[in-house]
Every structure is written in C-alpha cells, then in structure tokens.
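Researcher: Going back to the complex we discussed earlier. I've cleaned up the inputs and rechecked each line, so this should be the final set. Can you rerun the prediction on the complete assembly and write out the structure?
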Amino acid sequence: MLRYTVRRLILTIPVVFGILVISFMLTRLSGDPTDLILPPDAPDSAREAFRRINGLDRPLISQFGTFVVNVFRGDFGNSLRFHEPALSLVMERMGATMELAVAVMAIAILVGIPTGVVAAYMRNTPVDISVRGVSLLGQAMPSFYLGILSIIVFAVWLRWFPSGGRGTWLHLVLPATTLSFQLIALIARVTRSCMLDVLGQDYIRTARAKGLSERRVVWLHALRNAFIPVLTVIGLQVGFLLGGVIVTETVFSWPGVGRLAVQAIYARDFPVVQAVVFLFAMIFVLVNLIVDLLYAAVDPRIGYR
Amino acid sequence: MIGTLLRKTATVALVSASLLGAGAADAETITIAQNFDPQTLWPNGTTASDNLNAGSAMVEALFWQNPATGVIEPLLATGVEMVSPTEALVTLREGVSFTNGEPMNADAVVHSIEIFMDEDQTPAYSRVSNLFASVEKVDDLTVRIMLSNTFPAFMLALSQISVVPPAYWNEVGLEAYGQNPIGTGPFVFESWVRDDRLVMSANPDYWGEAPAGITELVWRPVPEDSARLAGLQTGEFQVVKDLPVSAIPVLENEGSVSLVTVPSYRIYQIGLASHEQYVSPLQDVTVRQALNYAIDTQVIIDALFFGRAIPLHGQVLREPQPGFNTDLDDYGYDPERAREMLAEAGYPDGFDITFKCPSGRYAQDREVCEAVAGMLAEVGVRAELILLEPGEFLRQLRTMELAPMYFVGLAPQDDPGFQASQYLSDWRYSPIANAEMDALIEAGATEVNPEVRAQIYRDLMALMHQLAPIVFLYGGVDIYGVDARLTGFQPRGDGRMFFYNVALEE
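Model: Rerun complete. Updated structure for the full complex:
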C-alpha cells in the first residue's frame, strides 16, 4: 500500500512538469497582456516599461526557465494586475472554493446514490422513469442557466436566499444546489445501472435465500458491490466540479478561485492563470489517487503492492 | 399534519433569516455592486473605473470634474495660476490632514506628482503626465509645475493626480498602499475580503462636506448582469453599475429604485482604414461616404439599445465638449444614394471586404456588427464578418491588423485633444492619414485660448465629417440602478462614481 502510494506520487512528477509546460505555453499563445492591462492609447514608452518590469520582454525560454525554477520554490510570480504573489491570491480564495466544492460533493453523494439505488430497485416503475427523466434534464441543463433561474425564483421572488456573495450558510444554498444538480443526475444514473447489474447476480439471490432482510440485501450487499464504478465516476467528477465552480462562482458572486481564474484569463494575467491551473491539476491528481486507494477499502479483493 | 407544521416552520425560519441578512445592510450602509473587485485602491494604479470609484472615495485628487456640470472644481487644491503657458502655481487647501495625521501640504503633493510622472510606477497615466517636466515646492501650500509644452488639458490632468501621504507611502510602498490606502477622502478603509466585500466607514474628520446619512460604504464585485439586477430588486444593493439595457423595462416600475442613465464617453464607430498600405476600396473617399449613407444608425439605436444610445451628429466630439460642431448632422440613411456613389466610384456591383468585430467587449457588439453587415449587403458591399475575442481584438487594434474595416468603441479622456489625437496620421490605430487633419489636431493640442481651440476642433469635425474616416454610429449610454432614497448621485460618462454632494434620505 505504502509502496504503491509512493510509486503513484513519483509518477505525478512528469504530470506536474507537463502541466507547467502546457499552462506556460497556452497562456503565452493567447497574446500580450500589455494590450489588456494598459489603456489602448498608452504610449509605447509606457508599454515598454510595463513589459520590462514584468519580465515580458525576455526570450520565452528564459522566462520559462525562471518560471520553473521559481515554482519549485513555491513562487508563481507576481500577478500582473494585483502586483501580489499569484500563489497567495489563489490560496486566499481556496477556502471559499473548497467550501463550495465540499458542499456540492456532499449533496451530490447523499442525494445521488440513494436515488440511484431506489430507481434500480423499483426498475421500470413510475419512480424509476421519473428519476431517469429528471437526471437527463439535470445533465442537459447548463449550470449558469439553472443558477440565474434559481436567483430569480429563490432570491427575487421568494426572497428566501441572498442573490449572491458569501457569508452565512444561506449564501451557500443556491450555488451548492445549482452546481450539484448535474452531479446528482450523473451519480444517480451510474448508481442505478451498476445496481441493476449487481441485483441480478447469484450472490444477491443467495443473500435473499438465506433470509436476509431486503433492506440489508440492497443497501449492504448490493450497494457495496456496485460502489466501485460509482467511486471512479465521483473521482473523475472532481475535474468537472473544479470546472463547474468557475461558472457558478461567477453567477453567484462567490469569492473563490474559479472567479479569479476567469478574470485572470480575460486579462491575460499569466502568473495567476498558471497558479490556478497548477493547483487545480494537483487537486485532481491527488483526489484520484485517494479514490484508487479507497478501492481497496471497498473491495477486499483489490490489494496494492 | 406534523409535516406541514415542519414545512411552515422551516419557511418562516428561512424567511426571517433572509430578512436578517438583508437587515444587516441597515439604513446607513450603501452597498455598491460593480462588475469587478478593485485590483488596487491607489487611484493612479489603473484607469479602470471599478478601481478608481472605490479608491477615490478614500484617496482624493487635487481637482475633480463634476459630472453634473462638467466643470473641473477644486478639491485638495484651491486654484491654479498659469504664470506662463508652461509654468503653473497650484495653491493647496489649508488645514487638511490625511487620516493617519500626516499633513496634506506641498511636500505631499510634490511627492504624489513625482509618482504620477514616473512611467515605471504609473504607466497607465503616461499619456496625461508626459507633458509634466518638473515639480517643486514653493512654500507649504504652493507647488510649481513646469510643463514641457503648452497643455490645454492640464486641468484634466490635475484632476487625476491622487494625493498620498509621503511618510506612509515610503514606509509601505506602492503595492501595500494599494491594499490599505490612506487618504484625505470622505471614507476610510475598514476591511477587504478579496472578491467579496470592501468596507469603508465615514471619515469623522473629513475636511469637506461629508455625504449625509451614509456611515458605511460596502463595495461588492458581482460579475453577472442578472445577479446585479437581482440584488438591486431585493434591496441587497443600493447602487448598481453597468446594468444591461434589458434591465430597463424590469426596473421602470419599481418605485424603490431609480434608473440613472449617463451618456458615456464611448464613441462607437466603424473604422474605414485608408492608409496607403491598407489597399481596399475604402481608400476612396466617395466609398467611405457611401458606407455612411448605407448604415441606418437610428434602427440600431432603437432596435438593439431600446433607444438608449445617442446619435453622433456625424462627429466624434460629444455635445457638451468644446469643438462640438452644431452645423453637422448624421449622414442619414439613404441606401439609394449609397449605391449611386459606389457606382460612381467604380463599384456598381459592390465589393467584398473583411469586417472585424469584437465579441463580448462592448454592449451588443456582435449584434451591432451583424446588423451593419446586413445593411452593407443591401447596397452590395459583401462584408465578411470576423469575430474576435476582446484581448485579440485589442492587440489587432494596436497593430492595426483590424484594417481595413472594423467596429470599435473608443473612450478617450474628456478633452477634445485626446479624442482628436486618435486620428493623427501616425497614431497607432488611426484609420486615416491626412495632412490637413494633422495640422488641425496639432494646433488644437497646444492652443490654450479656449475660443480659438474650440474653433479648431469645430473645423476638424467638419473636415472629418467630409473625409469620413469612420462610419459615425452612436454614443453609448451607461445604466445605473440606484436606491430612490439616494439623492445627488450622478455618475460620469467614464464610469466614475463620486460621493460628493450625495445624501441618503430617511
């Protein structure tokens, strides 16, 4: 287990390097930040001064060298707009994003899995059909649209929740439910199909035959065996979630990393974009490592050496 | 039964909780929703209005241009005496202190102007500051500024110099100052949670007339248009900037909210590049005039902006500006005439041309371009519409890769000199090279007699109208939603909001 973990961690080194190269190259390909940060009628001398101060006038390869060396010292450079270390700008907002992401995941899992189990158990009944219908809708509806709709209904008409911002748990309700809607739909669908598969297995018949209660059969024996693919999907959806927060944070004025990323991309604030991409990629890699390790906990037949 | 009761209780709890949430913004707090969180609260750090609005509530300038009158009025300075066209003596207000106790005097102003003149620290303002040659202290309340040339927009420049306390500035430096500024303004920095809320409290020792009834300002960044509108409707925000035109019908019937519309400095136009190197039919002035007849600007204003855009009257200066030429008017929509002129210029069957347009930079930009392309097709000009991401658009504007034909909205500072200089032959995004225009532009840039200067610009506008380096489209309108209890609130055409002469009524 430990050796496996260490091996996996070593394997992330080329991934990290790849992320650094890609994020560096993609940002530079997008163009010159001077155009966006200084007004269009700024004189050439001011443009040159801006480029010189921010090191944008140096050859790309030398900029990249400095970037990589500094990253390993935890320094992503200073934001071109805020004149502050990019990493601290991102970390300042990470708490808000994690709060939202954890709430979304919790809602998605707590609602999605039971829904999928019930739909599978009551296969082809009206319950199942409506779950399938709603999940299809959930996966098809873009989250920004759902977000704006929920602001109009729950903030403007009903006045139950604030229209945006962060503060009390009330502020969390609308963005978290909006973003979890798609995930609930996906998790419910995957759970349903895995459960259907498992419920037809011999060992389920055996469990029933030895007189176990239906509740035990379904929620313990069947669910545990159906859980591995669900877990994989959840792990992979962390990527979706990190992408989804970008939209949701913008719609709900949530002060998180996603919104910072959007603004940084629009302004070509290279250091900030690079820091966000790097951290999000790291989170994705780590979560999926944890998911792999969880397989062993869920299924004793899986062992890591 | 129990279920219903529970549901009811939950609803009551939610409602009361949300009422509490709204109640936290009590009668004396003004919450302002803008698009962006400021990057820096030092007003000379950027030219972006969302930054300047917040920063200048705390850090004041020597003068300010009052949006209600357009007049540049004293703030930390009380007056300017021009000893010669290139030497100015600025008199400062007596008895003003920064909120950390440092005196606002000639030392502070000299220090601030030196920062303003330094391109490394203040690159965004170098277009205004590059005529400043030197600055020195005369006595405690007088500062001498030497200019390298006559500078008609000098007062406008003075209205943009924010005055900072030297000891504090030198202690913390430019960046930290921008995060926790100290100034002389009606509000004092309280706290700032990035991307969430910036809180300022009223300055109890403010030297001037403090905004009555307001004890706290909260600035909230709300990037989504519909969320800003929603917050205004629920009373979470008292001031909302940059509402979309579609918000107007929604808000017109809300008694608690007033709509404030402000003619923007931004002039929308289609550049028709005619420089020698941009070979196209647009090099022929008859063709450029024909295109002006081909576009129905009134339809664009009515259909795409619900009438909330302003006709240009065939010129790029706005009506209140000196040099606005009342003899000029829009070309008028006349497709028949456009077709005749095109035939006369040798294009009886029209021509093909690329038409570059930003997507997502200006209000309704894409829709305007589609409408324009459609109208051009009516007279036989087949415009191939190329949509550009805003950053790429700005790059191509600077390098003039947008040529020969492009849609752009330009918002230079409020002096005809800045507007005119965008059409100088060698300016990086000028669509035209014309010696006669250059002569007028250069004369206006240094002429200090206001009457003579206005006449120069009137002549320039007439000449430009005839040469048609652009299709004159429309002037923008900015839309603000404001709590009806707030009086005297008057934003400026460059997106600037001030809290002078503002009061919150009970």
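Model: Worth noting: Chain B is about 35% helix and 25% strand.
Researcher: Good, that matches what I expected from the previous run.
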